[in-house]
Description:
The chain is mainly beta. It has one domain (41-221). It has one helix spanning 41-51; strands spanning 16-22, 28-35, 58-60, 63-66, 82-88, 91-94, 108-112, 139-140, 144-145, 149-151, 154-164, 171-183, 190-206, 211-221. Strands 8, 9, 10, 11 and 14 form a 5-stranded antiparallel β-sheet that branches. Strands 3-4-5-6 form a 4-stranded antiparallel β-sheet. It has a 3-stranded antiparallel β-sheet with strand order 7-12-13, with no helix packed on it.
Amino acid sequence: xxxxxMAKTKGILEAFIEAEIRDKNGKLIEKRKFRSRSFVANLxxxxxxxxxxxxxxxxxxxxxxxxxxxxxxxHSGTARPIFIGTxxxxxxxxxxxxxxxxxxDSFGIRVGRGTSTPTPTDYNLEIPxxxxxxxxxLSYGTVIIDTLNIVGSTxxxxxxxxxxxxxxxxxxxxxIGLSVRIKIAYTDTWAYILIARDLASPPxxxxxxxxxxxxxxxxxxx
Length: 222
């Protein structure tokens, strides 16, 4: 079977496997590419634990770990704790945090007013909407990182955030993003990393006094 061309499905978490067979002289006999089916629940278990904001959990040598029933499952079928960040002032500094609290507008689910087409090299929203009650501002609520939902062969992780418009006039949301907070290596400072950016088509008009709830669904199907 020769190499097949596969159309990529936008917005789907995908993986592909390539295989080559060569004879003893190095001559190519067969080459093929096929879609991996698929990431298992452990991928999203790991991602979820790294994204959640923790305040109490276990620690060892100044590094925090989590000990919940939704831990990734090892090869023996045992749930295992994983290190998720460092400890300082009774707060866990996650290595990969998406669980922003009220008012934190630099990470988690974010919104903006930009209209440019998303590209693979985007590193921020084009025109971010900041937290507040002034002109073109929305009040950012806490990001909820839901428990994994496994239905049949599909695994879903939901990130949820509600925004409130107290600006006095309608605000149009045209871009939606997901960012995480990381600790910069060898420093005690943060960086904010955009991992997803989407356009709302048509844009979403949020009337004054109303709320907008957004959900990012990370999903994989075996």
